[in-house]
């Protein structure tokens, strides 16, 4: 099977614009690869990173056909295998690859990979491998370009505050999106600090939170792999397209019927509205989030016997 599988992955690698192809088990274990990498640790890093995104997309959409992450320097493409939820392909491409040609030429290869796995593995998964904290850090260190420097990872979020005029301006833009694109299921903004802006009086909290998480996970992977910021995420199922764009301190999320409009035209229309949404959000006030002192004291304190000490302000 290994020879046939490697040959199939090489066929995908030969598609114009494709740089690397990795067959990944759903728990993040790389099974086979083809491309420019030579380090096993680098292949593992790609597989484990994209596995997190694959899991989030599965939580939101169940079974999906593909997920595309676009940045200025590259595209990262996750393709589900037909009728095989235990594996997926991770494909990295040049920034200006012809996506339509990629989808058409890759269709037969996906069927071939799925066939080979079912014929030779018969439902048995490869053995799982666990990594210690030190091993994980060594893998991440493989992405360091300069020697002798320590890499640190930090998280910083701001809380956004909208006044009435800004909120109305955003709602007006969402209304224009609804009017220009037919068969929209949902369109909303999920902003840091729990702010949600939509045309409905109530926005599903789960969809807003998961859309934000999907974009955030994708952004971290693109920054790690390509040192570039994520521009948008596109996830397509059998009936729906889910498009997420980065906006200041949040994301714009659109759910639309797959057959309502051609993808290229829809992305062209959205480009204008995303620019306007970003313009409005750039005028909004923000503040750095902070853990309340009482909660910070509670989290950081500990008793002599390992118990917690409750802390509160005196009146």
Explain the layout of strands and helices.
Blueprint: H1 2-13, E1 18-25, E2 30-34, H2 40-61, E3 66-71, E4 75-81, E5 84-93, H3 99-121, H4 133-141, E6 158-161, H5 164-180, E7 184-191, E8 195-198, H6 205-226, E9 230-236, E10 240-247, E11 250-257, H7 263-282, E12 285-288, H8 293-300
Antiparallel strand pairs: 1-2, 1-5, 3-4, 3-9, 4-5, 6-12, 7-8, 7-11, 9-10, 10-11
Helix pairs in contact: 1-3, 2-6, 5-7
Tell me what you see in this structure.
The strands form two sheets. This protein has a ten-stranded antiparallel sheet with strand order 2-1-5-4-3-9-10-11-7-8, sandwiched between helices. A two-stranded antiparallel sheet has the order 6-12. A hairpin with a 3-residue loop joins strand 9 (230-236) and strand 10 (240-247). It has helices spanning 2-13, 40-61, 99-121, 133-141, 164-180, 205-226, 263-282, 293-300, and strands at residues 18-25, 30-34, 66-71, 75-81, 84-93, 158-161, 184-191, 195-198, 230-236, 240-247, 250-257, 285-288. It has two domains: 2-141, Beta-Lactamase (2-Layer Sandwich), CATH 3.30.450; 158-288, 2-Layer Sandwich (Beta-Lactamase), CATH 3.30.450.30. It contains eight helices and twelve strands. It is 42% helix and 25% strand.
């Amino acid at each position: 099977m290994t020879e046939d599988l490697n040959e199939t992955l090489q066929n995908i690698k030969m598609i114009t614009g494709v740089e690397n192809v990795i067959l990944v088990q759903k728990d993040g274990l790389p099974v086979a690869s083809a491309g420019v990498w030579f380090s096993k640790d680098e292949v593992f890093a790609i597989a484990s990173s994209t596995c997190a995104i694959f899991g989030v997309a599965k939580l939101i959409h169940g079974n999906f056909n593909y997920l595309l992450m676009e940045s200025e320097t590259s595209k990262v493409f996750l393709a589900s295998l037909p009728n095989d939820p235990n594996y997926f392909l991770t494909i990295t491409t040049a920034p200006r690859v012809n996506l339509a040609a990629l989808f058409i030429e890759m269709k037969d290869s996906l069927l071939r990979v799925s066939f080979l796995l079912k014929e030779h593995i018969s439902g048995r998964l490869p053995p799982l491998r666990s990594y210690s904290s030190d091993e994980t850090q060594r893998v991440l260190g493989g992405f360091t370009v300069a020697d002798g420097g320590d890499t640190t990872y930090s998280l910083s979020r701001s809380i956004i505050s909208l006044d009435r005029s800004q909120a109305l301006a955003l709602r007006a833009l969402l209304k224009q999106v609804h009017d220009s694109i037919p068969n929209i299921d949902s369109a909303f903004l999920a902003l840091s600090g729990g702010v949600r802006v939509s045309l409905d009086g109530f926005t599903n909290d789960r969809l807003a939170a998961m859309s934000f998480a999907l974009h955030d996970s994708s952004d971290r992977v693109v920054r790690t792999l390509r040192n570039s910021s994520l521009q948008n995420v596109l996830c397509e199922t059998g009936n729906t397209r889910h498009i997420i764009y980065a906006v200041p301190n949040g994301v714009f999320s659109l759910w639309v019927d797959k057959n309502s409009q051609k993808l290229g035209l829809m992305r062209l229309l959205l480009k204008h509205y995303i620019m306007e949404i970003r313009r409005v959000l750039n005028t909004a006030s923000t503040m750095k989030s902070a853990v309340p002192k009482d909660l910070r004291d509670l989290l950081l304190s500990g008793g002599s016997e390992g118990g917690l000490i409750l802390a509160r302000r005196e009146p």
